[in-house]
Prior knowledge:
The complex is a heterodimer of chains A (263) and B (342). By secondary structure, chain A is of the alpha/beta class. Chain A is built from ten helices and twelve strands. Chain B has one domain: ABC transporter involved in vitamin B12 uptake, BtuC (Orthogonal Bundle), CATH 1.10.3470.10. The chains are: A alpha/beta (263), B mainly alpha (342). Chains A and B meet through helix 2 of A and helix 9 and helix 10 of B.
Amino acid sequence: xxxxxxxxxAYGKKNVIHGIDLHVNxxxxxxxxxxxxxxxxTLLKAIVGLLPYTGSIRIQSTLVEKLKxxxxxxxxxxxxxxxxxxxxxxxxxxxLMGRFHTSSFGFNYAKEDVAWAHxxxxxxxxxxxxxxxxxNLSGGERQLVLIARALAQQSSIIVMDEPVTxxxxxxxxxxxxxxxxxxxxxxxxxQTTHYPDHALRVSHKVAWIAHGKLLAYGEPQEVVTVxxxxxxxxxxxxxxxxxxGVHHLFPLGFLHKECLCGS
Amino acid sequence: xYLRGLWLWSMAVLILILSIVAAFFVxxxxxxxxxxxxxxxxxxxxxxxxxxEEATRRIIETYTILYEIRFPRIIAAVxxxxxxxxxxxxFQGIFVNPLVSPSIxxxxxxxxxxxxxxxVFHQSTPIVQLSAFIFAFIAVxxxxxxxxxxxxxxxxxxxxxxxxxSSSLFSALLSILKYIADPxxxxxxxVYWLMGSLSSVSLHGxxxxxxxxxxxxxxLVIFSKHLNLLSLGEDEAKxxxxxxxxxxxxxxxLATLLSALSVMLAGVIGWIGxxxxxxxxxxxxxNHSVLLPFSALVGGIFLLLVDSLSRGFFTMEVxxxxxxxxxxxxxxxxxxxxxxxx
Lengths: 263, 342
């Protein structure tokens, strides 16, 4: 579905991503884990085309570098970490913007586009909010609206940058459920996260990124391990298993890596 | 959520038409309704042969005042008010900041310098206007050039900085011109020009500028979906399918054209480009396909009313820029108070 080959990314002269290869299958949720500054968000931005990169990105057999932005937007949707819009757009107007790639000009969006935008809002449980100002929503509601906008794009791949960051527990769980549901419906989802537990819970695959390189990529239980947590975050932990079968990481405490080297 | 109904638009259009008609009667030379009707009939060419030479002479005199003095001024006020408002709304959108005004990229400083340059060399009005227009664009392209040269990261921030640099540069150059200008002749005209006025507007100037203004506004409305996306910020606009760099440049050129033509005709008229889009956004919301035409209407009405005020209610004509500021500032304070309450 989505194939990255030897992706390299630089901010100015500083290389941030040093050659990452990644293959994502259709209807899979792939979570990208890594410490702050490891290059997770940079990689996502490169995939969506917000940053220049070298290497190649293919969606099915299409090389996305060759596409115009409207064509890329039809294949891949992006849910940013936070969207602070200074103007009073209504929720419906924000979701309709996802239809831009089908009708860029003209005074208004077509009736079908409006109907589709309403359906996307219903799907994320925000149907009742369509007339409210996006600006006045809570963080969780905003995130859901942005996901509705991504759904409105009707692209099969959705890329989310830390979708649960800053949300309360209820909203976090709501969002994770939504991600699982979308994958079951055939959407391919790529998300970055700071929560190994969330990665264990919703992902089909997990990618670890450290210092701009792919550290490990595979099934969640295989790559989210106590050793890896210690290596990446310097945190000792235990892996617990809930009776439902879900694995759950229990952090024990912070250890200085220097201390570990000595012992 | 907003007053989008037909009645709001009808009201605005009605107010515009009434203001236009009323403005024909404002001025030092009193025109009665009967004379206005006679002149209108004469203009339409459906006049019966007038009774006597004296009457014909009077009609022609009224006609000249109405058509050659007041008409261009009224059209100019409406077009300039509309252009500055649309330009302001557009710049606020692409800079993702409701506090931006059309002068952000240096268009006013550039035009001021250009006009002053013409005046220092005692050029005729058309040359002064042309020079203002050209330097308005030079200043904006200078700002864009700086932003392009160094703006690898945050493009909007670099554009703002480019605008600050360009504005300051042309303000400094303007100061030099003021310093060396002939203090009895050129300097007063420069100072007067900087206060903004419609008193020197000619029919030719309006005929040259108005179609270009109208065309730019229509094009900007056609690109209103792009503008909506650009007002979310660069990354989101790109991800949703906007070729940000190209479209932004195109839109900046159109918005600059609007403000450059306005400044060329009327000098520096402040606050309209900042305040009117706020009022319009407050009434019809931020969707540019509605916001831009409505800003144009409100801006046109506003400047026409202010200009009529300056012509009719003071014994000496008060420069427009002074009045728009004096009226715009309290309006802006009211808007701020309202948005703070929200």
